[in-house]
Amino acid sequence: MAKFLVLHTIDLSTADAAEYSTEAQMAKVNDSLAAYTAETHCIESWVAAGAGKIACLWEAPTDQAIIDAFAKIPHRKQLPVDGIYPAMVIDWREMKK
Predict the structure, then answer these.
(1) CA-wise closest residue to 70 among 36, 94, 96
(2) What is the pLDDT of residue 97?
(3) What total of structural domains would you count in the chain?
(4) Domain that holds residue 27
(5) What is the per-residue DSSP string for the chain?
(6) Cα 57 to Cα 88: distance, rounded to the nearest angstrom
(7) Which of 43-74 are b and which e, b meaning 16 or more Cβ less than 10 Å from the residue's Cβ?
(8) Taking a C-beta distance cutoff of 8 angstroms, is the pair 81, 9 a contact?
(9) What is the mean pLDDT of residues 52-74?
(10) pTM of the prediction?
(11) Could you tell me which residues come within 8 angstroms of residue 43 by beta carbon, excluding any fewer than 6 positions away?
């Protein structure tokens, strides 16, 4: 299955801290998980809160499948997509062995 890097920019300077409480985040997490399929899902995400950036590694047949998954997530406007890029993973730990 193909892998894609999905980049987001978020503005945490104007965010309401209550939106980032565990309870609020769990509702968003469940909404996101419900949009995933066996073929189209996020594998990992990295957050650089100070820079307002999020990078997510997705597995999907096409970039359109990721766009379709995002369309199913109610809070998607709070996480705008800057770009979706074909990607490969380099496991540096494995290369060091």
Answers:
(1) 36
(2) 80
(3) 1
(4) 2-96
(5) -EEEEEEEE--GGG--GGGGSHHHHHHHHHHHHHH--SSSEEEEEEEEGGGTEEEEEEEESSHHHHHHHHHT-TTGGGS-EEEEEEE----HHHHH-
(6) 9
(7) eeeeeeeeeeebebebbbeebebbeebbeebe
(8) no
(9) 94
(10) 0.82
(11) 3, 57, 58, 59
CATH of the domain at 31: 3.30.70.3090
* One-letter identity of residue 72: K
Choice among 13-22, 41-50, 55-64, 86-95 with the minimum mean pLDDT: 13-22
Measured CA to CA, the distance from residue 25 to residue 15 in angstroms comes to: 13
pLDDT of 11 reads 80
Dump pLDDT digits (tens) for 4-54. 999 999 887 666 666 666 777 787 888 888 899 999 999 999 988 788 899
